[in-house]
C-alpha cells in the first residue's frame, strides 16, 4: 500500500548518502565548513527523528549588540515560499547555485544549519506559521487570515507603530490575508500592509493595454486552481501612484524588463524601503516553487535567481541611509523538499512526505550585533523566528510558541 | 460507516474483479480500522486495471493480513486505529469514493498534526509486510535504459554527476544508430521473455517505429489529444470559480480514459488507465515532456515492476520569462534544449533509484546515454563503481558490457 521496498529504500539511502563525515565542532563559516556543518547536523537530526539521543550544542554568544547599538533597529525577513534542499544549496554540489549567499552574506552572518518545521508543509500556511510563531492549521489553499496574532500586529501594538512601518511583499493571491490575524485583540487594521506585486501587475497591464494577463497569476505551483477574490487591506492599484509615487506606466514599463515575479517583488520592496523605510519588512519569494512542475533545471534557476535577489536586497540595505548599519536581515526557506530516496515522494519535486529532509531547512542572519562567520549546529524551530524578532525589536509575542534565539536576539 | 457494517451490497458500484476481491476478503476487512480499509479500497477499486505485479502485491498483502492471528493483526493496526478522525471523515462514503477520502484524510492528518504518526504506522506496516513476503527474483535481471538530451548540443552541465560513483563513465561512445540499437535490444528481450507489462518503452516525443507486441509503449506525443482534452476540462473548472482544489481533484479522480478520448480492449484498458493516472496524478506531466517521462518511468517501475525499461527524454517547451509573456502573451513557446538535458539527467538518476527499489537490485543493470553524443554511464554487477573508461565502443558493445 505504501510503496513497496522501504527496506531497500533505506539501504539505498545509505548507499547514496551524499553527506560527508565532518567534525561536529565546525564553527567558522567557510563554504566547506558550512557544508560539513549542514551535513553533520542533518545526520544528528535524522538520528533524533529515529529516537536516538541528540545532544544540542547550544553555543553561547557575547551580547555584542549591547555595545553602542543604534536605538531604532530595522528588520528585513526574506523567506522562500518554495523549499530549497541542502544538496542544491549549501552542500558542495549545490554551492554553485548560491554564490551571493556564500560570498556576500555568509561571511557576515550567523548560520543556523538545522531549522525544523513541524507544521503543515504548504507554503501559505507555513509562512503564516513563521509569521505568528504558532503552527497554523488552516487549509493551505483557503483565503483565511492566520488564527494567531502575527509578528506585524505584535510589533505595531506593543511599540505603537503606524501602519506604514511594516509591510509584507508576497508572491501569490493566497498570501493576501497574511498581514493580520483573526484574533480579536489584534486583527483588522492592526497589521501590515500586504502587496502582491503580480496581482498589481496584472491589474496595471489590464488597465494600460486592455489585455488579459491571467497567466501571470499562475503563481501557486502547489495547485493550479486557487485564485481567490481579493479583499481586505491589500494594496490597491490606485495606491500605486498615491502611496508608492509610482505611475502605472512606469510600473508596467519596469515590469517588462524583469524576468520573474520575484524580481518584481524585490523591485516593490525597494520602493517601499525608499518611500517609507519600514522598520519591519517581510518579503516572501516564490520562484523556486516551480519545482512542483518537475523540471529540475527550472528549480535550479529559481534557486540561482533567489540567491541573486538576496544579494540585491543586502546591497539595497547598505545603500539606503535609513537601513545601513541598523538592519538585521533574516533569510530562510519555509521548509525543505522531499529527499530523493524517500519512496513515497518524488525527490525535489514536492514537499509532501513529511520526511526529515522536507521538514528541515537553514537560516542565515546578518546585521549589527550578529556574530559574523558563525555556525549554529543545534536544532532550532521555525517557530523561534517571531520570539527572536520580538527580542530584537522589543515587543512581546505573547502567543508565539517558539523561543528567542540567543545567538541573535 | 464503520468496517463491521460492510457487506457485498455496498460494493455494487465496483468493477467486477474488484468486487470479487472485496467479497473474498470481507471478513478480514470488517476487522480492520476504517482508515486502513479505506486506503486498501483505494487500491482494490481499480483492481481491474492494475498490472499483474501490483495485483500480486495486493493479494499478498491481503493474504498476510488474513493469516495473522487476531492479536498480532490488532497490534499491527494500532497506529492506524489510534488516528483521530473528524466527523466529516467518519461520515464520508469511503467505500465508493476512497480516492477522495484519501485526499481529505491527508489534509486532516496534516492539520491535526497526525501526519507523522500516520507515516510511522505506514512505514512499520510496509516493513512488516515486506519482511513476511517471499519476493521472487525477476525472471531475468532487470535492465533500465535512459536516453537523455535529444537535440541538445554539448552539455555545459556536468552529466551523470549523481550516478558516477555507482558505475562506469564512458567518454568515447560511438553514437551511430544508438537509439535503434537500444530499441532493438529492448524488443529482443520482450520477444525472448514475454511477460505481460514486463517490458516498457516510454518516449517524451513521438515513438520510434517498433513492431513488438510484447512491449508496452507510451509516448508524450501520442497523448497530445488526451492532454488537450484534460487541460480543457481543468480550465472549465477553474473558470467556473466553483469548488476549489477539491473540485478539481474530484474531477481528476473520476476521469475515465474514454472521457479524454482513450479507448481499446482489455490490455489497452489497463494501459489507458495507467496513462490517465499519469496525466491526472502527476504534477507537470500535462505541460512538460521531461516531467512526463520521469513520472511515467517512476510509475511504471513502481506499479508494473518491469524487467526492461527504455525511457527516452525529448525537449520540453521553454518556460517563458515574465518580460516575454508581457510582450507577446500568445506566442507559442520554443523548446528548451539545455534545460531539458538537465531535467533528463536528474530524471535518469531518479529512474535508477526507482529501479533499485525493486527485487533483484543486485543483479540489475542501468544505462544512461546522452543521445547522439559520446557520453554514457553504465551500472551493473560486472562494472566497477566510480570509474571512467575511454575505450571507443559502439552502442552494441556497450550493451554487451552490462547485460
Structural class of chain B: alpha/beta
Radius of gyration of chain A: 20 Å
Query: What share of residues are in beta strands of chain B?
Result: 5-15%
Order of strands, main sheet of chain B, comes to 5-4-6-1-9-10-2-11
What is the residue-averaged pLDDT of chain A? 79
Helix content of chain A: 25-40%
Helix content of chain B: 40-55%
Structural class of chain A, by secondary structure, is alpha/beta
| CATH architecture group name of chain A | 3-Layer(aba) Sandwich
- From the spread of the alpha carbons, the general shape of chain A counts as globular
Q: How many helix segments of chain B?
A: 16
Shape of chain B: globular
Order of helices and strands of chain B: HHHHHHHHEEEHEEHHHHEEHEHEEEEH
How many strands, what sense, and barrel or not for the largest sheet of chain A?
Answer: 9 strands, mixed
The CATH class of chain A is Alpha Beta
Please count the helical segments of chain A: 12
The poorly predicted ranges of chain B are none
Structure description:
Chain A is an alpha/beta fold and 409 residues long. Chain A has one domain (9-393): Alkaline Phosphatase, subunit A, CATH 3.40.720.10. Helices cover 33% and strands 11% of the residues of chain A. Chain A contains twelve helices and nine strands. In chain A, strands 1, 2, 3, 4, 5, 6, 7, 8 and 9 form a nine-stranded mixed β-sheet that branches. In chain A, helix 6 (197-209) packs across helix 8 and helix 9 (261-275) packs parallel to helix 10. Residues 1-27, 43-70, 215-220 and 223-234 of chain A have low confidence and may be disordered. Chain B has 403 residues and is of the alpha/beta class. Chain B folds into two domains: 3-132, no CATH class; 143-318 and 331-402, no CATH class. In chain B, helix 3 crosses helix 7. Chain B starts with 15 loop residues before the first helix and ends with a helix. The chains are: A alpha/beta (409), B alpha/beta (403).
